[in-house]
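Reader question, answered in our methods column.
A reader sent in the components of a multi-part assembly and asked whether the whole thing could be modeled at once rather than chain by chain. We filled in our standard form and ran it. Here is what they sent:
COMPLEX SIZE: two components
ENTRIES:
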Amino acid sequence: MLFNSFDFAIFLPIVFIGYWFLFNKTLKIQNLFILVSSYFFYGCWDWRFLSLILFSTIVDYLIGIGLSRKENITKRKLLLWISILMNLGFLGFFKYYNFFLHNFITAFSFFGKEISANSLDIILPVGISFYTFQTLSYTIDVYKRKLEPIKDFIAFSAFVSFFPQLVAGPIERATNLLPQFQKNRIFKNDLAIDGVKQILWGLFKKVVIADNCAFFCNEIFNNSSSYNGSTLVLGAIFFSFQIYGDFSGYSDIAIGVAKLFGFKLMKNFLYPYFSRDIAEFWRRWHISLTTWFRDYLYIPLGGSRASKGVIVRNVLIVFLVSGFWHGANWTFLFWGGLNGLLFLPLIIQKKNRKYTNDISNSFYFLPSFKEFFSILSTFALVTLCWVFFRAESLTHAFQYLNGIFSDTLFEPPLITFKLGLLVLLIFYMITIEWFGRFSEHPLKNLVKNRNIMFKISFYSLILILTIWFSGKQQDFIYFQF
Amino acid sequence: MKTFFIKIIKHLFIFLIILEIVSRVFIDPLFFFSLDTFRNKSCKTIKCILEEPNDKPDYIFMGSSRVAALVNLELLTDLTGNKNVLNSARGYMTPGIMIQALKSKLRETPDFLSDSKVFLEYYGQGSLTNLYIRDQLKVYETYTMKYSSQPQFILPYLNFSDLKDFWSVSSNSWKVKVNLTVLYFSASYRCALFMNEKFNYADKVLYKGQSNVSESGGIRSDDIENTIQFAAISAEKKKQRILSEPYLTQEILAESSLSELNNLVRENGGELVLFKTPLHSISKEIFNTQKSKLNNQVFIKWLNTQKINLIEPENFNYKDEDFLDILHINPDRKDEYTHSLYNQILVLENLLIKN
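And here is the structure of the entire assembly that came back:
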């Protein structure tokens, strides 16, 4: 059930009414209703994998209880490792089994040894990477005594499977989301209105920007050898906007939907394409995953309070693992590594926190020339990296880049009517995001102090564009992760 | 909670009014223009009827996307020595829509058909030989999810009382009836579909290596695999339907859509001519049963009694491989077919002069 589908348009109001009007007598019943709705939502994809979520939920719930009762450090560690191995074991089997098998066979045959092994026809459960990391955060936080283990199994199950963010994040922390399942929720008008606005903006980014960019990206990437360099540049730029519109659009809808139910999920995107360097980009892109790796991998490895050699190692490990998290393919590993290499000079020179202030001072209408240049160069680097993310293989990625940096780079690119219109729509999105960049999402305060006619025209325009110019429905890219 | 609902409903209501106004003022004219059988982009004539509203055609070609993709209008105009030729065939055409469109055009230009020849595609028993009373307002409908039904093509010829009749007489499903009703009343809905389709299909140029016949009124050929699958399923369904229906009789044919069309054309001074279009072996298979053969004999007899000519382009040899998608012949062979058809038209004209 996609967020931008008719099914979800039916599902959401039913759950909303059930949640606030029918099953609101006690917190437990309300949580149980969320749990049933979430399992139904997930079951619409593939009901067989519900058992996987349920098993993971039961094990982590019991381990949490176990951790609260054990004081012995060895036993606590053992419990933690059971949780880590089980969660990562499922993830490893479903996501990486065939990848490792294939590479082992290739490696052995390289050394002249032929081994035969059959790859398995494994279907990747939707959202496994997201809920695995979410439950892991719970066990680790309980182990570190940052969080009291929860006794209420229904609330814990609802936390693991909460439908707005179950299949593509944001990857919630138990410390943020779990307490929200344990206290009574009251309908807040402002929060719900804000949620609707965020859903609207997320839908626009997904169905207008991402789905239309996908049309051109698929065409250009799939036939890259037959296009000139400038068109390939256009293809790479469109992919940058496709993946942004797709993933941040999903996150906005997820956060907006959660707000309708009185929950506040963590931010996942904060205008990443306005970043002035790579370090800032990674503080603004997929924030829930970046901070997860920071808290549960980078810092335990020693973080930045170590020798330069260790810092280099830690940064590279985090980026490589992050790349690998996205998929069992060398392209993702390379993408992660490349981002790590771009990040390293900043952290070694201790310039990685140079831009922690707001992008461009609010007194200025437009960025300064220096800021504009920084934003543009960061976008160019990020776009270059996305080529590896999007390509079918490393060979394809290098061929694509080779095509870009060829004699045909300065030939006129492919220009069509739809492409021209799409560029205007992207420009519209950038403009709205630029003026709304000081808020959690651009529609939050952008027209707050304007008169009613302006507000109506503003929202109507977004809705009309969303209805008229929605692209052919595509799956969300991050579902495959 | 109450404030939330009131705010959401209020905003949605205002938005819908704005959308309705914008759609009616800016998009509706374009939408209806593209739907009108005798004015849309794929309907072409050398002396465009749109430019000269009182002009009337010598030859009018009617039928499905097969005809739109098969007949080269420019070539036929040249061959006929600058006769005014109109190709009003298009995809998703039904006899009901053809007749309603013609009636509508005749109300606008009463002598539109006088001394004209109306060439109608015929490829075997089917919708043309069905009872007109059931099909007079019927629109194209498919039962597969992949290809949606196309109720919008009847909209330009539909008034409110027709809409009521559509609910009572049309054999379309209730889903299509609801869809057409919403299309009729809501400009927001019909224009949203229209804008979305225009935007999404704007860049056909990107589909390389596949000749796309949609420009000449045929179907899109960037989805060949699905079209082939769809055509095969449809052929089998049609075969089964013919087998389950009663045998054709002179009485049934007298009440058929073809008969209605013939009467309409004759009453307005024109002449109806049927012409055969090439068929893929899968489509031919529909008419290979004993029942179909008997039906065909009855049909030919009826044509003779009605003095309707049936022509078949000679010397146009083709194989299954020539079909792009089972339904449509590759547009590369369009000129060849047009030449063959023209030769048959010449034979027909000479015959008529002799008679």
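What stands out: The radius of gyration of chain B is 21 Å. Chain B has two domains: 1-30+140-202, 36-130+210-354.
Send us your own complexes using the same form.
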